[in-house]
């Protein structure tokens, strides 16, 4: 095989490998991001539940204050009852007393409802806090695994960069410039194999004459359809 073509194939494979590292790292980070997102949602749920509990306590306090006012009102009505003289005044006090008692009954029922609701919310809060602890422990474990995976990816990337640098040390400048021009638009498919007599960049069929030249591998050949550098890949027989 033409030495320049062989170098181009190696360089293209290095570049393709280098391009694959960042998505691998992003994929590892995404694993962690999913767990972090879940933990943040749980934290939001905890904060919302705290706010609901505070609101319940505030309502209960208001009802207790109102209840105390109503009881004080009943005491006043009782005192007035001892000194009223007319039937009209008695009936007015009785009506006022009935209304106060109804309001007391409603306030007690509301306090009872709020107490039950508070118990439910406290249970929900406890469950959320336990779930958050579990998620945070999972995040810590996953963080270690992700950091380790990223470290291995970076080690492999450094090796590929080193191998690429060594290859470029003796690379022909004209051939490199030619490759870089194609790479600007073809990205990591600047150099592609020919399989079943088709360019694996544009998947167009190669003519017999061009294919014969590709098989010889004596020159650097561009695909007549897309302009990529093409070569005949060694075929392996599968068992």
From TrEMBL:
Q: Which residues form a coiled coil?
A: 83-159
Record carries keyword Amino-acid biosynthesis: no
Q: Which domain of life is it from?
A: Bacteria
Question: Which UniProt keywords are listed?
Answer: Coiled coil
Chain ranges of the C4-type zinc ribbon domain: 198-230
Limits of the CT398-like coiled coil hairpin domain: 86-183
- Coiled coil found in the keyword field: yes
InterPro entries, sorted: CT398_CC_hairpin (IPR056003), Oxidative_Scav/Glycosyltrans (IPR052376), Zf-RING_7 (IPR003743)
PANTHER family recorded: PHOSPHOLIPASE C-BETA-2-RELATED (PTHR39082), SCAVENGER RECEPTOR CLASS A MEMBER 3 (PTHR39082:SF1)
Name of the protein this chain belongs to:
Uncharacterized protein
Q: Which organism is it from?
A: Arcobacter nitrofigilis (strain ATCC 33309 / DSM 7299 / CCUG 15893 / LMG 7604 / NCTC 12251 / CI) (Campylobacter nitrofigilis)
């Amino acid at each position: 095989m033409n030495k320049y073509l062989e170098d181009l194939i190696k360089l293209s494979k290095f570049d393709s490998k280098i391009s694959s590292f960042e998505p691998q790292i992003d994929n590892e980070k995404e694993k962690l991001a999913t767990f972090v997102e879940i933990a943040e949602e749980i934290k939001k749920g905890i904060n919302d539940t705290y706010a609901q509990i505070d609101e319940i306590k505030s309502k209960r306090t208001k009802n207790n204050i109102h209840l105390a006012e109503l009881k004080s009102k009943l005491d006043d009505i009782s005192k007035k009852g001892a000194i009223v003289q007319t039937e009209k005044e008695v009936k007015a006090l009785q009506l006022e007393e009935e209304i106060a008692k109804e309001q007391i009954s409603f306030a007690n029922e509301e306090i009872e409802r709020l107490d039950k609701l508070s118990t439910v919310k406290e249970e929900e809060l406890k469950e959320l806090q336990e779930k958050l602890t579990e998620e945070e422990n999972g995040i810590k474990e996953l963080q270690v695994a992700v950091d380790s995976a990223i470290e291995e990816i970076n080690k492999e990337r450094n090796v590929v960069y080193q191998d690429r640098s060594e290859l470029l040390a003796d690379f022909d400048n004209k051939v490199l410039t030619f490759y870089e021009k194609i790479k600007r638009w073809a990205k990591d498919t600047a150099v592609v194999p020919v399989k079943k007599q088709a360019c694996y960049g544009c998947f167009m069929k190669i003519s017999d004459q061009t294919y014969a030249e590709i098989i010889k591998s004596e020159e650097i050949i561009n695909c007549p359809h897309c302009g990529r550098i093409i070569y005949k890949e060694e075929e392996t027989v599968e068992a």
